[in-house]
Amino acid sequence: MQLTYAANMWNEALNKRLGTEGLDLPDLLVETEMRGSSFVELLTIPEQDDWVCSDGKSASCVAFVLEIYKAVGLFDPISSSIQVVEFTIKDAYSLRFFENNSSCLPKWCNDGDGVELPFCQTRGRY
Question: What is residue 46's DSSP assignment?
Answer without folding.
Answer: P
